[in-house]
Structures
1.
Amino acid sequence: MEKAPLELERDNVELLPKESEARAAAICKGQAILNGFLFVCLLVSLLSTADSPPTPAPRDGSRAACSGHGMLFDDAAACECFDCWTGSTCSERLPDESELCVVVANSGTPYIFEQYWVAHPEAAISIKPSYHIGYNPDMPRLEAAIRSMHELVGNAVVDETKHVVVGIGSTELINAALYALADDVSAGEHPSSSPPSQRRQPAAVWTQTPFYSGYRSPPAYFRSRAFEWAWDADPNASTAVPPPTSAARRVIELVTSPNNPDGHLRVPVVSGAHSAVVMDHAYLWPHFVATGAPPVDHVSNSTISLWTLSKVSGHASTRVGWAITSCPVLAARLTAFVRAASYGAPRESQLRAIAAIEHIVAHDGELFRVARRLMLSRWRRLEDAFARHGALVASTEGVLAASPAYRLEGRDAPAADAFSAETSYEASPAYAWVQKLDGGDCLAAMASVGIVARPGGQFGVSHDFVRLELLMREQTFVILLAKLDTLLGVASG
Ligand SMILES: Cc1ncc(COP(=O)(O)O)c(C=O)c1O
């Protein structure tokens, strides 16, 4: 076994000057022993590898256990079948026309990411019972991961002058932002410090219609003295023009861009000293829209931008969101709100968010590319279905077909995208915004073919509109399309 290395030793020595020979021989002898040792080690390791199976790579069998049409979660006794699949292992497909085959398209749960995470179980976390049982929930590593992800995508300014405040989902931060912006930072006002005599009217919370259905309930539910939903204060207020601003009554505009439900990019319409803006960028990610230059809308002292893990990685139940602002006073108010409301986002949630975000960054945003391909293909199939049946697809290029019964809201024009470096990046919004053109009840029409949609009323418009979620699993989307095909086919005769 030692033969080859020793021969090598002799060959080497012959190349060295005579006086170094003895020392060289000693070194080479040592080397030979080492080489021999390494060779034995290699052999032992090869033999042992051949005898015992290799350590298995982590595998997530949650879908496979349910025939690919459901999920068996670790804490569940049975499969949760996807819409229109049934049986103990979800192997039976209900016919599309069965009353039991109902596609639930009224939520915003981003299942487009689920298959990716099934394929990447290495991004799992495990937590020791002894891990940080104290109250301190601050995790700078999450903030660093968030900044890296924005830098990778190019959709936010996150230099060191910007503050990132983490909350329990964007839902908590919407309230935190309304609280933070209700009083004028530059005038030194503070929501809790002004004596009652000096308190102005509550700030009016206003947003253009159609608006995200989650905006109306916080002001209505909390009945805060700091802010109120504009249409509670004045039922006749315009849904297109903001209420007037004044020193006595500030206006906070909630701007969702891209918008939920119709997918359009939006800009604020309020302006002036007594106004403030919350830019909700839940959907400003490459799977939904082009991001050109990072929007600079969170760099003023009266603006806060909001982001959520729910629509970035799909981990909606983790309940992690973040706000970005350049104003230290606003950052302090946001933090104070989160502390008062919940004493911070749970560490367990933050750990899961860190694992997901660090994975996304380490894989150069591959998750976004996967989700993007899916969303784009869905939009093509959806528009084809509407066009095939002569339904209107409102688009930047104009009307595509005539004699319509339904109208599908069109997508914004393609634009340059920083993440992919594509110059003509098509939008692929998270939702389809559909109108029934005879003025009838669109929700009921969808229900007649087994589609559960979200009614226009929840977005501040009439019942001839519905929002259809497009974030479901692929097999559910295929059934949704088939059902829409039936609906549109009946409507076009
Ligand atoms: C525009 C918008 N903002 C905020 C949220 C809430 O996000 P989170 O899950 O972080 O509470 C949603 C959820 O659908 C949303 O669509």
2.
Amino acid sequence: MSEGGDIMIPGRTCPIDYNLNGESFDRFDEDIMADTIYVVGGLYGNKEALDEILKMAKEESNLRIVFNGDAHWFDVDLEDFSYIENAIKNYDAIIGNVEAELISDRSEAGCGCSYPDSVDDGVVDRSNKIHSIMKKNIQKSKDMIDVLKRRKRTLTARVGDKRIAILHGDEKSLAGWGNSKENLQDADRLDEIGSWADKNSIDIVACTHTCAPIAVAFGEDCKTIDENNGEKRPDKTSDKILDVGEVDKLDKKVDKLDKEVDKLDKPDKKVVINNGASGMPNFINTNYGLLTRISKTKSDRAIYRYILGDVFIEAIPIEYDHDKFLKWFDEVWDNTSPASISYRDRIVYGGCDNVENCVRGFELVFD
Ligand SMILES: [Fe+2]
């Protein structure tokens, strides 16, 4: 039973203690200040992806790496789990629902994913099974459990003059789906997270959890920038007939004003970037993971980018050793296992969407 007395449905119900209302985002002593931050969400126990990220990190200066939850998933054996934990122990990490349910005494929340109705019951059931196998193995190690118990739930960061909220799910809940691709296409949801970001002086929200990437840059009226650009300018002269010369003059005035606005630091623009998965492919016919890079400098590796003032917000592919990862995955999970049924096709053939469908307001910069 949940605290409120309602029956919990494993993998569906969001546990009440995932509520993030008590977290403080508007304090100005940020946890992290750096020139570049990698936000690595949903590593899912992929050692090859982790090794590749640490290799990429050597090319950066004044870098902080933040693992923003669900660093584990396929690594249900204690040895594999410990490999990931030992490798990330010197970096920043926050807890995801996978870790939260490992340290929880309850079993009623299952994997803690809080899957929405759009996710098939079979997927939910298999996720609960994967998590219960992991929990049985990992709870044997007090050291591992203690490490997870010390992990924070959110972090704030600063790059240049931009403030960043680093979350697992959304601003309300550790396993919230408010930053899913579907929800971030909704104007009311953009209005909600835009208001929250304004209230907390946050410019960028970096999140994960939904396993599907989405990056949205939007303006003060909470429409996406794409929509604003395509919007018809209000015609304030509709009741007056203007001659061609007057129209030209007005057009030039408007162009000049537009340029002035572009020069401003876009103080009202907000960005929400959900990296999808670092440890699994995200797009059709690809086999790389994704991390979010927020930096004072631009990366040549980026596949999409938004520039907010002087700060670059980018999605970077993690081109891990696919064959090695697949070999390990098949050794741990045979073809009748819940992980193989749910994820093997994605690992081999890629995600189910194109890059173009996962960005709004961002510039695509891949070939
Ligand atoms: Fe998650």
3.
Amino acid sequence: MRGGPVREETRPFWRRYSVAGGLLLLAVGVSLWFWWGRQTAMQAVQAPSHCALPAQPASAPHPGMVWVPGGTFEFGDTENPEEQPIRQTTVAGVWMDRTEVTNDEFAGFVRATGYVTLAERAVDVTKHTGLPPDMQQPGAVVFVMPNDVRGGGHVTQWWRYLPGANWRHPGGPTTSIDGRGAFPVVTLAFEDAQAYARWKGRSLPSEAQWEWAARAGQTRAAQDHAQPAQANTWQGLFPVVNSGDDGFVGLAPVGCYAPNALGLFDMIGNVWELTSDAYTPTHPEPGVALPMPSDVRAVAAVGQRVIKGGSFLCAPNYCMRYRSGARQPQDDDLGTSHLGFRTILIAPGP
Ligand SMILES: [Ca+2]
């Protein structure tokens, strides 16, 4: 007879309502947090459309590139299984683009050659049977910020295949790259990046070449795996709250953050970068030859490539791959809105 409701009525007012009040405050707090994130995101839309790069001497042999001296280093890191085993690796010196390839640069290639990217071509449904109807149309995978995350938080809640998305319309058919010439070109497939590199007389870096260049002379991975300050990454709770504290909530124009000690910009963050290496779940054991960019066999008949550096979507609660040693696989035949590339040139040093 003396059940719960009676006892409930005898409790002081403040105790009766403390739970409900706490929940209300929590709801208000979360709402404000979302609102603040969105407001900051809207302000960050006003971010610059390009960032000035330091002048290079007129005598620079390969404008837009910097020399990466050869060296021996501890290739790999300890954060994730795929970064291991760490193996001592020697790479020769190469010239490397000091920024990611931009929309303007890729547009120059397309104007000169008439090249059509994979995301713009008809989908060969005979090679990909069982595709849902939207994926049978040309397009690419685009990050779309969700309002909330349900269940276990499957990636399909923020990654969507959008018909009509391609390098000219990187956020989907209603978006464009007008005024975004200095932004990294995205939604390219591996063969598109390779075609651009070949046209320039260059190639894509191998994973080891890329990682050594990102280290800028440090022979070991930094022990501090913290989120870097000088890189375009995600601040807040991925994928729903991005404060944009680093100035950008999405892609940034190339060269907006301090370069590494070699003068290379955005090696970490902004967009992931393609390498020429076929993806393997771990590094090859010491003694097993690493694939080299000139080795055509390494880039033929494989489905996934190693990508490096992390992107604007890497947050402390998700991805966390804003490190030189981090790596992920990328399907060769799919463009995404967080993936770009830069090229290397094998030529005598300065
Ligand atoms: Ca990058």
4.
Amino acid sequence: MSRLRIHCFVLALATMATAQSDPRRPVEVKPPRTYKGRTIAQTMHYLGAPWLIRESREREEECSTLLECLGIERGDVVCDFGSGNGFYTLPICRLVGPDTKVLAVDIQKQMLTLLEKRAAREGLEGRVETILGTETDPKLPRGKVDLALLVDVYHELSHPEETLRALRDSLSSDGRIVLVEFRAEDPKVPIKKLHKMSKRQVLRELVPNGFRLVEQFDELPWQHVMFFGRAPDNDLSQQARQAMARASGATVGAPRSESAALGLVLARAFRLTGDDRYYDAACSCARRLVKSTHRDAHLLLFLTELDDLVEEPWLTDAIDDITGALLGGAGLERAAWPEWRAVRDANRRTQPADLVAPARAALDALDDEGRWTRDGTICVADYIVHMHQLCDLLEFALPR
Ligand SMILES: C[S@@+](CC[C@H](N)C(=O)[O-])C[C@H]1O[C@@H](n2cnc3c(N)ncnc32)[C@H](O)[C@@H]1O
């Protein structure tokens, strides 16, 4: 055995001994195979790096449109999280200007080396701070990052909760993280299922980890772009969550028009909490309403609020059907559909007044004993109280 090998052997034994005897040594956390029902994808190996800078990428993914929608300004502190070989890092350097370094985090040293070489070739050396993170700690500075961009990365994180906590801590007061993920809802996107994510799944995972969806960009050919801000620490207390969960029952027995408003509240509650109970309640409310023959704009708004979350054809069919009926009734052409989308988007932005008022009206229609008076179906009085709490909460919690 050579001296070097003996040296290594002794060193390894010594390390093992220290490791076993040191009670402070962190226990190695085994990566979970799934997270909230989703199988976590394997990390893309650095040998695949050329694929990230392939010539067809701009045409396929419209990368410059993505960069534009990020709204990066000079001097912004931007983190390209899971930067790979820096396909996005380098253009971001040009957007933030020469006085601000872009933080590029990756867990593969080789990726960062490739990135440094590309930066040097493009005359951008010194404009990127490469950070070799670990699976549980991205080693980002606290409270500094204005925008953390995760393109095709989140679904690979072996420890989503730890990483999200660290990302949350790294954000400046109005800092945001942006998830760009291939759309799981769209079978035409030519990427393996394991490497795609639905909006519903993203919300399910991000919201309970202290993030609030603040903006979306739905115009890329293959990917969702979802912006999240840090939810305030006191956002939704356990008590409030319980109240909202109990409120789910309030749609049962509500008059149809008001059911749509309550359903809308539930769909929004899912967006706010990522809690599947709201999702399920909103879906069963929608299914019930769709079965009835009643078609109105309230129902359409409710269904379109759900349409990017539900991956089943019944909803799309119902939306088409109701849109056709409404547009036909109003003498409008089908081409007016984009306007309905705009109504939906506006509705999401101006939610407190638009959503809470009809929900309140629904509640006002109850008699003193907490019953829906119009169709006589009994609704437990408790729910009313909780619905009021829910409305107050939504009013407080929704982005303005
Ligand atoms: C599919 S590549 C995308 C690279 C780049 N964002 C792009 O769009 O060109 C995913 C990258 O995320 C990195 N990654 C995976 N898990 C990570 C983690 N926990 N922290 C930082 N980077 C990670 C991988 O090493 C890989 O370079």
